[in-house]
Structures are given as C-alpha cells and as structure tokens.
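To illustrate this point, we now present one chain and its tokenised fold:
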Amino acid sequence: MPSPKQFEPASGTRDFLAAEFERREYAFSTIRAVFSRYGFQPLQTPAFERLDVLTGKYGDEGDKLVFKILRRGEHEATGEADLALRYDLTVPLARAAAAYGSQLPSPSREPASA
C-alpha cells in the first residue's frame, strides 16, 4: 500500500490546481503588463549555473544554499558536481549583465519634458 508521503511533491515545492494556477497567472500577467508599460524588459536565465560561479561568493553560509548537480557521462562515477541550481537571481543577473551588458538597455531614463 502506498504511503501518503508518496503523493506529496518534493520538499519546498507545491502543486497548483487549475483555479489557483489561473489566479497566479492573472497576477503575474498584471505585473508583467505594468513592468512592460514602464519600459522594463524580461530576462530569463537558466535554473542552474556552473558551480564555480555560485560558490565562494557569500562564504560558508551562502555555499550551504547551493544544490549541486552531479556530473553525468564519463565523469558520473566520480560523484563530483560541476553545476548547481541557482538559489536566487543575483548571480545569474550579474553574470548576464557582464556577458551582455552592451546589449542591455540602460536602466536610467530621460526626465519627461514639461
């Protein structure tokens, strides 16, 4: 007989049934529309980063937030990790800004003329 835990999503995650999903999507679409109206553009970065990019930036406490992704393929047997799930958007945003800075719009604006 399956245990009740078997049907629970992984720790830190949850399921959204249709009604709640639709309310969330409505809220997110409203936020996106307002951001767009004021000239903000979307940016999407991968859910994972190279491990060396995420570790060592915030000391031991920050390193504890990293969920490592074990290597696959020929390196699988080593048990080493070279990728990790990002825990916030600070590092990916900084990486993307460094990589694509000249292609990104400036966050400053000209004052509206009277």
Remarks:
- Residues 71 and 81 are 5 Å apart (CA to CA).
- Helices lie at 18-37, 51-54, 59-63, 90-100.
